[in-house]
Each structure stands twice: as structure tokens, then as C-alpha cells.
Design goal:
The protein is of the alpha+beta class and 120 residues long. Helix 3 packs across helix 5. The chain is built from five helices and five strands, in the order H-H-E-H-H-E-E-E-E-H.
């Protein structure tokens, strides 16, 4: 009986934790690129700038958390906590290629794109 209770508790904990991440990065990427950009700044600088600009309420209209991690094709991915928005920033010569993805079509999407564009 005790094993069944522990297994039930573990299952409930996993289901609860699984609900914390609304969207996987791959599911957001599967929706397709919303916008692509190229810039002359190095990819690492562009990614850092995007992360900072996405956290600026004056630029995006809300206070968001933005993070970076290694990208799928090299470079870096900048993403919001719930993976609602993400940008793959890859080296392109001396500059950078940025592919922007959004899980849904929200009014905030345009603000995220505009903030991103300031970093190129």
C-alpha cells in the first residue's frame, strides 16, 4: 500500500511540474519562423542585447524574464520563461542571422519583434 501511495504522489508531482512549461521550444519552432533578420553585430552581442531588450518593459510593454542557451545550429537561443517567444541567433559571417518564433499571434508579438530589431 505504501508503494502505491508513493507512486501516486510521484505521478501527481510530475504532472504538476509538467504543467509549468507551457510550450517546448521544438513545438514553437514547428510553427515556423515569424520573422528573420540579419545584422552586422556579432551573434553573441545580438543575443545578449535581445535578452536585455526583452526584459525592458519600456520596449515590450511588460516585465518578462528572458534567458539564453546554446542554439540548435550553433549560436544562442534567447527565450522567454514560457517559451512563448524565442529567437535563434546564429553567426553569419562577421554578423548574425536571427530567426524569431512565437507560439501564438498576440499583440505583444510585434513589440517583441521591434525590441529584437533594435539589437541588429
Amino acid at each position: 500500500m505504501r508503494v502505491l501511495t508513493q507512486a501516486t504522489a510521484m505521478t501527481l508531482a510530475l504532472v504538476t511540474l509538467g504543467g509549468c512549461a507551457l510550450h517546448s521550444m521544438s513545438s514553437v519552432r514547428d510553427r515556423g519562423v515569424v520573422a528573420s533578420f540579419t545584422g552586422k553585430r556579432p551573434a553573441a552581442d545580438v543575443a545578449q542585447c535581445i535578452a536585455v531588450s526583452w526584459q525592458n518593459p519600456a520596449l515590450v510593454g511588460a516585465e518578462l524574464a528572458a534567458y539564453t542557451q546554446p542554439g540548435p545550429k550553433g549560436g544562442l537561443t534567447v527565450y522567454t520563461r514560457d517559451n512563448e517567444y524565442l529567437a535563434d541567433v546564429s553567426p553569419a559571417g562577421a554578423g548574425a542571422q536571427v530567426d524569431f518564433f512565437a507560439y501564438s499571434d498576440t499583440p505583444a508579438k510585434q513589440q517583441m519583434i521591434a525590441a529584437l530589431a533594435t539589437c541588429l
